[in-house]
Amino acid sequence: MRIFVTGASGWIGSAVVPDLLAAGHEVIGLARSDRAAETVAGLGAAVHRGSLDDLDSLRAAAAGADGVVHLGYHHDFSQMAEAARIDRRAVQLFGEVLAGTGGPLVVASGVLGIGGGGHPATESDMPDPTIHPRIATGELVLSLAERRVRTAVVRFAPTVHGPGDQGFVATLVELARRTGIAGYIGDGSNRWPAVHRLDAATLVQLAVDSAPAGSVLHAVDEEGIATRDIAEAIGRSLGVPAQSVAADRAAEHFGWIGGFFGMDSAASSIRTRELLGWVPAHPGLVDDLDAGRYRDAAPHSTAGG
């Protein structure tokens, strides 16, 4: 198939593209800058210049493809409503273009805010759309199955880790470097799910190839690592102590990431593995930390797309 990929030059997308190519697909990657275009071309994909808010460009690319993998997003926490609006319009457009074709539309979401009551969230649990507006768009994606679009929502763990990660864990590492302690909130028993970037990419490729319409998939390898264990691994990597931070001081110490890191957000991927035969094979998060892969990590800007 000919697959159009948004976010093709990003952290997850740049791993998905090689997997799709290796599976025999032709890939067209969206690029909004010269740097992104160079990355996409270097991965072996065709380059389509444009952006998520350029609907004419998106329509042209999707119309020339058999399916779409939508990973791109404007990750700017200062403009969350606008980012959600752009994302929803893009999904609506992809649904219109693919309607009646049975082609795949695979869209990224997240597991944060799903489930509750102390049990790991499952693929059948419904998310709380107030956690992040991107979650609500997942409901729209699934509804497009009624229009003969082979839709799949891939809910990623909040940490998609590996060498070069500039996300949540890199932020925690930088915070520990700056403050001299690797912090966790309270007793650190709340759980944080994770998946290696390369395993996540494999799941997206499997979704393109064989996920049934209306699928919800969990890109989660480790369903819940205690945040204290994560902090202790960060501490070992940097040579700083792991230390509890009182809940009423979490916002002061952790800043914006404290609200996320303090959640108990365990998530299961048992049904995903059974449905698609997905078998994660790469190191876990603590292994990556202990191997020193985050020692020099620096977080990425919140702006992006």
Which short descriptors sum up this protein?
three-stranded mixed sheet, 305 residues, alpha/beta, 12 helices, disordered C terminus, UDP-galactose 4-epimerase, domain 1, SDR family oxidoreductase, Rossmann fold, NAD(P)-dependent_oxidoreduct, Epimerase_deHydtase, seven-stranded parallel sheet, 39% helix
How would you describe this structure to a colleague?
It holds the Pfam family Epimerase. The chain is an alpha/beta fold. The chain folds into two domains: 2-158 and 197-220, Rossmann fold, CATH 3.40.50.720; 159-194 and 223-266 and 281-290, UDP-galactose 4-epimerase, domain 1 (Alpha-Beta Complex), CATH 3.90.25. Helix content is 39%, strand content 20%. The strands form three sheets. Strands 3-2-1-4-5-6-10 form a seven-stranded parallel beta sheet, sandwiched between helices. Strands 7-9-11 form a three-stranded mixed beta sheet. Strand 4, helix 4 (80-98) and strand 5 form a beta-alpha-beta unit. The relative contact order is 0.15.
Q: Topology, pairings included?
A:
Elements: E1 2-6, H1 13-22, E2 26-31, H2 34-42, E3 46-49, H3 55-63, E4 67-70, H4 80-98, E5 104-110, H5 133-143, E6 150-156, E7 159-161, H6 168-179, E8 182-185, E9 191-196, H7 197-210, E10 215-219, E11 222-226, H8 227-238, E12 242-245, H9 250-254, H10 258-261, H11 270-276, H12 285-290
Parallel strand pairs: 1-2, 1-4, 2-3, 4-5, 5-6, 6-10, 7-9, 8-12
Antiparallel strand pairs: 9-11
Tally the helices: what do you get? 12
Order of SSEs, N→C?
EHEHEHEHEHEEHEEHEEHEHHHH
| Low-confidence region ranges | 301-305
The chain-level mean pLDDT equals 92
Strand content: 15-25%
CATH class category name of the largest domain: Alpha Beta
User: What name does the CATH topology of the largest domain carry?
Assistant: Rossmann fold
What is the terminal separation in angstroms?
A: 25 Å
Helical coverage, percent range: 25-40%
Backbone shape: globular
Strand arrangement, largest sheet?
3-2-1-4-5-6-10
For the CA atoms, what is the radius of gyration?
19 Å
DSSP, total strands: 12
CATH superfamily of the largest domain: NAD(P)-binding Rossmann-like Domain
Specify the CATH architecture of the largest domain.
3-Layer(aba) Sandwich
State the secondary-structure class: alpha/beta
Q: In total, how many domains does the architecture comprise? A: 2
Biggest beta sheet summary? 7 strands, parallel
Organism: Jatrophihabitans telluris
Protein name: SDR family oxidoreductase
InterPro entries: Epimerase_deHydtase (IPR001509), NAD(P)-bd_dom_sf (IPR036291), NAD(P)-dependent_oxidoreduct (IPR051783)
